[in-house]
């Protein structure tokens, strides 16, 4: 069977999930669900990154232990995933023993390969990014104070530290970038330039950090949180144990991450893997950030959107649909209630919802609540049905290159073509004049709804399964393969009582 391993970044447990975290896990879920529809054997992984100074300091502030904080927060992330109907196969926590074992092992492998040495570190560190910076990478604020390239505060650090010989990997990394390892291309160029500029060895331990995994054979040091965190992608596959899970899913197919952590995934991570003698993941895709009405979300601005309460207010499918449809995947996007309401009302309530409601209500009333009789198809009918055949390959290709928003927009073209067909053919007028033709028009419309329903499952799993349930489609006949003409709707099969799937949302002032 064709295997596919997709992972998200693992989230820090120093705060609860926000809409940016939801965005990433929903996108990964859409891709995972789509791959399953293609018949692939998918392993979809997400989790929490629990160690490090940032989490430790937050716990001290709350007067609880870092483990208690991590337990609470990872609970919130797990709950968010469930609430948003994310279909992850595992949830890795870096405080789990299975993970710690893998981190110690990858450290030893890198060390045995001669890539780790002890030295003195002096330089800048950003706690928020959990990253070391060279002075030439820093920017100055208006008071002349240094900031990291992500605009976060930095502090001067001088301590004994273990180093990783990143400098030895420049050539190998550059040849890795010759393929499509980094997406989108703009990010690839940025990373390529960075690596071409020369790589220095990096510090990979912190002295005196309590909340971390101890360096093997040296209790005074803890493993730098990024060495720890990145290893989750293989510890969740049971590495270093020999297992079918690891054999089937490593090298991973896709690490889906935000644009702020590309360097860690495309420079550090492949270098660590090369050093440890492990295969490299096939692709890293960097998505954009969700902004709140154009502004970066932050605690100090008080503009952090809670995905759970948005899903409660507007609906799970509605939130998923908006986040995936509104912005081309890879670009930054904007959140506001108004944008969501307008998008959902226009596409889900008006276009898709009305089509299914009008069509299925007519079927219920006029066709004995069963799939209508399909009589002779004319050119118009055939043309509409052929559209799916003609467009299928290009629509699928969009999802294969993770152009999620374009995929959705293409499927909604089919919705609007079907709406136009329905209005033009006026089945309500045919009721008395030509009932056989009315049946055919309703059959064609139902058949289009079946195909649209199949294609929308990854994005709006709740609404599309309702739609496919109304049409009484067997649950094992909802895969991409069943889009073909060989599996069209069976006339006479009873349908379920249709209901409104996407009620219109009132604009909140
Ligand atoms: N713990 C690290 C990742 C380690 S992966 C081995 C981390 N955690 S995070 O909680 O800060 O971010 C988790 C993911 O959410 C990252 O991919 C990050 O880019 C993404 N996002 C954080 N804020 C975001 C938005 N506002 N919008 C979209 N994604 C954002 O980084």
Model description:
With 509 residues, the protein is α/β, with parallel strands linked by helices. Helices cover 48% and strands 16% of the residues. The chain contains 18 helices and 18 strands. Helix 2 (53-62) packs across helix 3 (66-83) and helix 14 (379-400) packs parallel to helix 17. It binds 5'-O-[(L-methionyl)-sulphamoyl]adenosine. Residues 9-12, 20-21, 23-24, 49, 229-230, 232, 257-258, 260-261, 289-290, 297 line the site of 5'-O-[(L-methionyl)-sulphamoyl]adenosine (MSP).
Q: How does the SSE layout of this entry go?
A:
Blueprint: E1 3-8, E2 11-12, H1 19-37, E3 41-49, H2 53-62, H3 66-83, E4 90-93, H4 97-112, E5 116-126, E6 131-133, E7 139-140, E8 146-147, E9 155-164, H5 170-176, E10 182-183, H6 185-196, E11 202-203, E12 205-207, E13 214-215, E14 218-223, H7 225-230, H8 232-235, H9 244-249, E15 254-258, H10 262-276, E16 284-287, E17 290-292, H11 307-314, H12 316-326, E18 333-335, H13 337-366, H14 379-400, H15 404-425, H16 427-433, H17 435-456, H18 461-470
Parallel strand pairs: 1-3, 1-15, 2-3, 3-4, 10-16, 15-16, 17-18
Antiparallel strand pairs: 5-6, 5-9, 7-8, 9-11, 12-14, 13-14
The structure holds 5'-O-[(L-methionyl)-sulphamoyl]adenosine.
5'-O-[(L-methionyl)-sulphamoyl]adenosine (MSP) binds next to strand 2, helix 1, helix 7 and strand 15.
């Amino acid at each position: 069977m064709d295997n596919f391993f997709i992972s998200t970044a693992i989230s820090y447990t120093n705060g609860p999930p926000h809409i940016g975290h939801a965005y990433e896990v929903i996108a990964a879920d859409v891709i995972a669900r789509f791959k399953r529809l293609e018949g692939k054997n998918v392993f979809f992984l997400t989790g929490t990154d629990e160690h490090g100074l940032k989490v430790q300091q937050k716990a001290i502030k709350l007067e609880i232990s870092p483990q208690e904080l991590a337990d609470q927060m990872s609970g919130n992330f797990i709950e968010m995933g469930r609430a948003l109907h994310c279909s992850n196969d595992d949830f890795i926590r870096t405080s789990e023993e299975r993970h710690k074992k893998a981190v110690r092992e990858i450290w030893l492998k890198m060390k045995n390969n001669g890539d780790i040495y002890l030295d003195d570190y002096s330089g800048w560190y950003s706690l928020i990014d959990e990253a070391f910076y060279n002075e030439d990478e820093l920017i100055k604020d208006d008071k002349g104070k240094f900031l990291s390239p992500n605009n976060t505060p930095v502090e001067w650090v001088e301590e004994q530290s273990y180093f990783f010989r990143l400098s030895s990997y420049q050539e190998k990394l550059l040849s890795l970038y010759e393929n499509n390892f980094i997406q989108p291309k703009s990010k690839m160029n940025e990373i390529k330039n960075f690596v071409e500029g020369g790589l220095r060895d990096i510090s990979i331990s912190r002295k005196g950090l309590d909340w971390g995994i101890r360096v093997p054979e040296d209790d005074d040091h803890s493993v730098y949180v990024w060495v720890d965190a990145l290893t989750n992608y293989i510890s969740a596959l049971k590495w270093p144990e020999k297992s079918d899970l690891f054999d089937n899913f490593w090298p991973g197919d896709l690490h889906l991450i935000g644009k702020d952590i590309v360097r860690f995934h495309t420079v550090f991570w492949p270098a660590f893997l090369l050093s440890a003698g492990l295969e490299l993941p096939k692709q890293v895709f960097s998505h954009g950030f969700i902004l709140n009405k154009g502004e970066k979300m932050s605690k100090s601005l008080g503009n952090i959107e809670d995905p759970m309460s948005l899903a409660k207010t507007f609906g799970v499918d509605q939130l998923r649909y908006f986040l995936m449809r509104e912005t081309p995947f890879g670009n930054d996007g904007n959140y506001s209630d108004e944008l969501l309401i307008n998008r959902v009302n226009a596409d889900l309530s008006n276009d898709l919802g009305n089509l299914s409601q009008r069509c299925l209500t007519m079927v219920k009333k006029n066709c004995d609540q069963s799939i209508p009789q399909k009589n002779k198809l004319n050119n118009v009918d055939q043309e509409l049905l052929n559209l799916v055949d003609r467009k299928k390959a290009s629509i699928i290709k969009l999802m294969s290159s993770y152009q999620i928003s374009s995929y959705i927009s293409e499927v909604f073209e089919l919705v609007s073509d079907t709406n136009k067909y329905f209005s033009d053919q006026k089945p309500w007028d045919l009721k008395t004049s030509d009932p056989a033709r009315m049946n055919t028009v309703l059959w064609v419309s139902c058949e289009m709804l079946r195909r649209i329903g199949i294609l929308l499952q990854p994005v709006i799993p709740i609404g599309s399964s309702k739609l496919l349930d109304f049409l009484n489609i067997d649950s094992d006949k909802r895969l991409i393969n069943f889009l073909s003409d060989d599996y069209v709707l069976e006339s006479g099969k009873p349908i379920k009582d249709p209901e409104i799937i996407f009620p219109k949302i009132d604009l909140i002032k």
